[in-house]
Every structure is written in C-alpha cells, then in structure tokens.
Amino acid sequence: MTDKDLGRFAEDTLFHRIARAVCHAGCLPRKELFETWEMARRVRRRFRGGRVIDLGGGHGLLAQIMLLLDDSSPSALVVDQTLPASGARLYEALVRAWPRLAGRLTFVAGSLETAELLGTDVVVSCHACGDLTDRVLQRAVAAQARVAVLPCCHDLESGDTGRLRGWVDGPLAADIVRATRLTQQGYRVWTQTIPADITAKNRLLLGAPVLESARTVSRVSAPRRARAQSPGRRRS
C-alpha cells in the first residue's frame, strides 16, 4: 500500500485513518492491514487494558492498533526474531497521526522466549507460522496472561492434531486441540473467525485464565448492580 491507495480510504473512521497512515509508510501489503484490524478489534472486545505483547510481531501494526483501540493500555512490546527495517517507518507514520503513541512502543529483535511476561499482559500474535503459535500459547499460559492468536501454516507432521484428521481437515484439528488444551490449562476460551475473504487462515483463538475472566465479569457487572440498587430508580 502506498499513497496511490489513499483514495480507497477517504472516510473519517478510525480504520480509514489507520489505513491512510499505512499508505504513507508504504511498506505493508493490503491484506496485512485488513487481517490485523479485524483481529485487533475482536480482541479488544474481550480484553481491555494491560501491556500489549505482540510476539512474532514484525512491523508491530497489531500492537499499535491495539493501543489505538484501547488507550488504557500503557505500552506495547513487539518481539520478532528479525525486525523489518521498515518497521520504524510505519511507527513514525502512525505517531504523526497519533502523537500519543510516541514512546509507548518497544521493538526487540530476538526469540520470543526472551520476553518477560506478566499476568496483566495481553499476548497477541497474528499468523505466527507453525509451532510458533504453540510457543506463544505456552508463554502466555506460563505467565497466566490473556492471549489471542490467529494461527497459520500448520505443520501437520510435527503438530498435534489429536487423531481428529479422520473427521476434520488437519489445520482445523490442530486448532481444536489448541483450544482444548487451553481449557484444560485453566483458561476460558473463545473461538471466532475473521472474514474469510481477507484470509483463509481466519480462525481466532482467545483465552483468559478462569480467575481473571471472573474478575473481569465482576468489574463489569458491579456498576450495573449498583445502578439497579440506587435510591429513586424508577421501575417500568
């Protein structure tokens, strides 16, 4: 995407504003913008706040959209074995459009195992290839952090398909096993999809530790209970 594509994104919506910044950076394919946006907004419907940890994050677009969608997240960390040189150009383009992003993003070149994770983090990874998705899930579970992954490039030779390939295709079997394993590890799991016309690898897996999930529900419900019990509230 380059400035030649600006005419496609003329509206004043957040997505179109992000798309225009991506066009100015001139370093991302259109598909990456759309799949990252669709993943980020679904994750933010479930998980608010917390430091964003984007593992295998490449240019870091997912982390930056996560911050734009929920400004209560203080910062984001992007980790990838090899960081693209154009990542800085994308970050600068987004900071020009949203100065509040300045100083809130850190890029680290290295193995995802080197990142120190906290239970309050939100760990995300968009199209982490093969067993990289499993390593992201393992890191998140070890830290008892919330996690969201959009798997791709399933390695059916070494990956765990739970002997389900007689019923369903291999990649789906592998993702079912991942969701089941998360549940067994004490996580509440949500399974969703992003539009298939953006990417065929569109299964989104989200998980939160059961205790953290209960606390989140409690925080959301408490104000509603308080309003219902407040003096002078009229009933229809």
Would you write up a description of this structure?
The structure is a single chain. The protein is an alpha/beta fold. The chain has a single domain (35-222), classed as 3-Layer(aba) Sandwich (Rossmann fold), CATH 3.40.50. Helices cover 41% and strands 18% of the residues. The protein has 7 helices and 7 strands, in the order H-H-E-H-E-H-E-E-H-E-H-E-E-H. It has helices at residues 14-25, 30-46, 61-69, 87-97, 132-143, 170-184, 210-229; strands at residues 52-55, 76-80, 105-109, 122-129, 146-152, 187-193, 203-209. The protein has a 7-stranded mixed sheet, with helices on both faces. Strand 1 (52-55), helix 3 and strand 2 form a beta-alpha-beta unit. Helix 1 (14-25) packs across helix 4 (87-97). The model is unreliable at 223-236 (pLDDT under 50).
In a few lines, what is going on in this structure?
By secondary structure, this protein is α/β, with parallel strands linked by helices. It has seven helices and seven strands.
Under the CATH scheme, which class? Alpha Beta
CATH topology name, in short, is Rossmann fold
Residue stretches low in confidence (pLDDT < 50, at least 5 long) are: 223-236
Going by CATH, the homologous superfamily would be: Vaccinia Virus protein VP39
**Relative strand content:** 15-25%
**N-C termini distance:** 54 Å
Structural class: alpha/beta
Question: How many domains is the backbone divided into?
Answer: 1
